[in-house]
Model the fold of this input.
Amino acid sequence: MPVFQLPREPVFPPVQLADPSGLLAVGGDLSMPRLVEAYRLGIFPWYGPGEPILWWSPHPRFVLFPDELKVSRSMRQLLKKNLFRVTFDTAFTSVVDACRKPRPGNPETWITPEMREAYRELHQSGLAHSVEVWYGDTLAGGLYGVSLGTCFFGESMFSGMSNTSKVALIALVRQLRKLGFLLVDCQVHTTHLGSLGARFVSRSRFIELLQQGQERQTIRGNWGVLMNEPEPGNPIQGGHPASR
Done:
C-alpha cells in the first residue's frame, strides 16, 4: 500500500489504508490542530531524529481497559509500603524530559525537540497530561499522554526507580476508572503494559471505541485540581511519602 504525503491542511487518509506495519502517512507538522485530529482518528506520530514526521495507525492496537487493570501481588505489596507520592500535571515538562533520556541499548530518542514543544503546547491547552511519581523530592517515575473524551492516549513513561512507571500507570487508571474513561491507548505491544492488563483489539474495533469515547466531553485543563486530593485507603495518591 502507498504511504501518503500529507498536505498543509490538518487532514489524514482513512486509517484502513495504513501499510501492514501500521504506517499511514508522512510529512505535515505537529501543530495542535493536526495532532488533535490525528488522535481523534486513531493516528499518532512516531519518528526518529533526522526522519520526516511519520504517522501510524497499527493493526491490531494495544489497549488497556480501566476495568481490566491487573495489579500483581508484588505491586500491591509495594504500594502498601507508602513509599511514593503521585501527582497529576505538576511537572509535565520534567516528565517529558525524563522520557527523552537515552535508555540502555537505545541511545537515541524519538521525542525530538519539536515533539517536546508540540506536547508542551497541548499541555498548556489542557489536552496533554502528566502523572508524576515522587520519592521524597525526587521525580522517580511518570508518564504523559493526551486525553480526548473518555480516551487517554499514552505517549511515553519512565522509571527512575524500579517499578515507578507502573506506579504511575496504576494511579492514572484508577482515576480514569472513577471518571468513566473507556480506554487507555497503549499503541503497540510491550510486555510491561501487557502485565498490567493491556490487550490487543482490531483497528476497526479501536476506531469504534474512539468514536464512542468522544461522545463525552473532554475533561480539559489542569488535572492536578481534579485528581491530586488523596483518597481514603489510597496511599500512593496525594499526601506525603513515608520518606519525608
